[in-house]
Amino acid sequence: MNSQYMQQPPPPQQFNAQAGFGGYPAPPQGMPPAQQQFRPQQPQNGPAPMPQPGQMGGFPQRPPPGSMVTNPGGVGTMSGGGGTIPGSMGTMPRPQMGPGMGPQQPQSQVLGGPQLHPQSQGQHLQQQQQLNGPHMPPPLNGPHMPPPLNGPHQQGGPQLQSSPKMQQQPGGAPMPQAQLEQASGPGHQMPPPPGGGMPPSNIPPQLQTQMAGMTINGPRMPPTSQNNYSPTTGYSHSSFPPAVNGTSPPDLISPGYINGTPQVSGPGRGPQQRPPPPQMDAYNSGYSVPPVNSYPPSPQQQMGYPPPQPGYPPSQPGYPPAPVQPAPTYPGAQQAPRRLDPDQMPSPLQVMQEDQKTKGGMFYTNQRGQVPPLVTTQFVVQDQGNCSPRYMRSTMYNVPVNVDMMKQTAVPFGLVISPLARPLEEESLPPIVDMGELGPVRCIRCKAYMCPFMQFIDGGRRFQCLFCKATTDVPDAYFQHLDHTGHRIDRYERPELVLGTYEFVATREYCRNEQFPKPPAMIFMIDVSYNNVKSGLVHLLCAQMKDILRNLPREPGADKSCVRVGFVTYNNSVHFYNVKACLAQPQMMVVGDTNEMFMPLLDGFLVDPQESEAVIDSLMQQIPQMFAETRETDTILAPVIQAGMEALKAAECSGKLLIFHTSLPTAEAPGKLKNRDDRKLLATEKEKTVLNPQNNFYNNLGQECVSAGCSVDLFILNNSFVDLATIGQICRLTGGEVFKYTYFQANIDGERLIADIKYNVGRPIVFDAIMRVRTSTGVRPTDFFGHFFMSNTTDMELASIDCDKAVALEIKHDDKLTEEEGVFVQVALLHTSCSGQRRIRILNLSLKTCSQMADLYRACELDTIVNFFAKQALYRLRENPPKQVKDSLVNRCAMMLACYRKNCASPSSAGQLILPECMKLLPLYISCVLKSDAISGGSDMTIDDRAFVMYAVNVMDIPNSVVYFYPRLIPLHDIDLDSSDIPLPIRCSAEKLRDDGAYLLDNGIHMFLWFGMGLAPEWVQAVFGVPTSAQINTDDTKLPDLDNPLSQRIRELIAIVRLERHRFMRLTLVRQRDKMEMLMKHFLVEDRGMDGTASYVDFLCHMHKEIRSILS
């Protein structure tokens, strides 16, 4: 949530059909482009700019390793058309077609080692073998390697070691211009010498020997033919390959290939342009190692290199991996380590920054199948026919025409829908259309609502539905003539004809019992047993209730809320309170028979909080006194929910229960539960026995609540097991949410609890809702994920839904599609607003269709895919063993990438890992999903904690799931005091934590402030008020309020980060090498997990192995 969300947006424009629709603005003349392409500006000062492609003759220069290589045919074009590719990061001129050069291919991220030219290597190979031994790689500038940057190494020339500012950008994005500098003299366009070899004098012998003896990713292990990776247990160190498929580290683009297309010399091309060598840094050697025997033959073996001799012993622990080499002596050299450089892997931070550059600004929704900006990008939506991506996103915007292609690619076709998402201040709220007694105009067959996809025919007397192709007569009151283009002449006065999102005012037939609803209510139900009184909860809630009630939701532009409130307390009985405004003192009524719960009070229970303010204040003073001496520890829960539901039924309104509960319901009453706390079962095949409800009582009660329009939010303040997996079902089925505060103490957690309650009651919310998703013929929604109840196969019933909740659904083919027509989606949400008006919110989305896989892979939305996969995995965990669910996810990911490699990428060495541009982060994100507590939480967490995060992920919208699976790590030690922006985050790895640094990590649920032991005393004094890091009290949950610019800046930053999330995250201070550091490092998702789960690099290697296994 951005800070501007805290202000009330302007009221939506009301449209009255009978009074006329004057004044709806038409789009400006000259439709603006769907998106503006921004190019990074060149540096004003510094070295001369790099020669542009084509200026130096021959084939264009290849960017350095890690750069994005796009299609040779211009800005993301395919042969035969195909339009632009969003997010393209560079272009190259179209080469002439020649023998062996197929049609152009979609953008790829090419990860893999250098390729060999097929010329005979001759005598140079024999010399190299004598130097390296039979299993060593060729020297740095062997026959298939590019020459050094400036020819033979010179002491005065540029060094191969990169400075921090010139280090290659992670994620494969273009480097700064200064880094790409290369002189354009004759020495940089050298034709290959005869035979393809380079004179050995091109490189100092010290570097040759150093590179020859180098092993990447540690010593080589014995060969194996088994896949010893398990997402559950991680890797077996005895068999993991030392590099990506044993050939080369990922992200190295082959000199012989650009995006998989061979570079050839020929007439009109000039000599082959040799690429600059990769930059050397402390973590990346950048060259290949021999393959493991379990892999297919490597390029070296295929092109004349002898295979490793069978009698040669492989390196093992305890044996040196190679003869000891002398240390490099040239200036600035560093000893190359024995592993891949994680910084050369695709980086989410780089992808987000590039998307901000290319897609930030205005986003117009006037194009079918247009891929929207990432959720992390700052953009403003101009609704021009398709709904804002804040409300609905698709996993793909180019849908395959047949089911066979869907099966081959394995890419899911899903939607993630947040129908009440908050728009930005600069964006307009969905307009409200009142059609009077006529009601919304709908298709006669499929009941789709009038939208921009409908086509008027017969002079405007009928319209054809693009969802089902049926033709419907236009009601006389809705008739209007058509212009010369076939559009209604009043279309710019009617939002439903030009916008993607709008609301209809519903007529009586859309209401329960055909009666217009009353304003909804919220009931506060407080557990007043011993634990809650002792922890200070009861006193805190009563003291803050007046402020909480000021935040009740209201319509945009309204002065006050229409929501009514009621109050209940309970322990082993239920207490109702009459707070009618005319009373001098509140009245208490107790229901002791919890087996037959009823509502003893009709008039005076639900009241206007402003009218009854004095009586409510008196009640809040009396409740802590009444229960101050209680010793009651047994509590009930189900009868309390029944009481709230009966109260809403009696008042004939919908609403929400906010229940503050503390312990397992063990009292003799309906809904009594047993203690089945056995955390050892987590992450085993038996975990579903404790993650599924122990009985169906709360499921059945949840269904009753939905039918009454009663939603339930649970605030759990437990000191022990409460069986959240069972009682949380009431939230799952009613569209509610779970909040959890283990070991709650009012003086420590009070601020967090009250902030969560205020936000919860104040956010945009609707009640008693039914959602249906309609699609055009050929596809249909089949599977649904989220917090709702379904009594049939099409309608999701939600007792409430708010701006932070999302539902996901999968769409499958039931017939063939045509490329011309596309796919149309319409979401209709029938609901009661917080003012008590019955409305229907409509969301429309149009997608393209395609018959080529390359078009599909160009138009996928990865963040949506990951959100969908996570929700689907949680659903499957209820029935299947966790290992099966995780293996299935890994296999699905591998199939998606293998299909791209097989059908869309140009032929290239199997040693290259080639990723689609829009999915280059898929391995990282799938690794993060597999590591997350929601999917893999084991016995190191409680069963209730595991259930809590599972519920949280189940309702997460995409902005929250992005940061949950890949947390944000922000450096604080060098923060700019003059800026109010959030500093750029860094990669989520412990290697990025400096001893003299301080960092803020958040994932939407947890927030850590980590500080090193070497942190500057001045910084520590300014922020914490103590001289050294060792004296900081890590038990504190807030920073001291010190009067200096640095302290103010850090505290403001933490407040901004909290405002972006819908939960108030407790701040945990973590000192370097303290016990809490292990907990915080659990969220550094690029590293190897403490439970043996794979690091990002290891998982990428494993994914490459899986892809090769599928392809072979």
Poorly predicted tracts of residues: 1-9, 15-106, 112-229, 231-337
Question: What is the mean predicted local confidence, pLDDT?
Answer: 78
The name of the CATH topology of the domain at 521-763 is Rossmann fold
Q: Report the helical percentage.
A: 10-25%
Overall spatial form: globular
**What proportion strand?**
15-25%
Helix count, DSSP H or I runs of 4 or more residues: 26
Largest sheet: 8 strands, mixed
CATH class of the domain at 521-763: Alpha Beta
| Rg over C-alpha atoms, rounded to the nearest angstrom | 32 Å
CATH level-two architecture of the domain at 521-763: 3-Layer(aba) Sandwich
The span between the termini is 47 Å
**Class from helix and strand fractions:** alpha/beta
Membrane topology: Peripheral membrane protein
Protein name: Protein transport protein Sec24C
Domain Gelsolin-like: 981-1053
Subcellular location: Cytoplasmic vesicle, COPII-coated vesicle membrane; Endoplasmic reticulum membrane
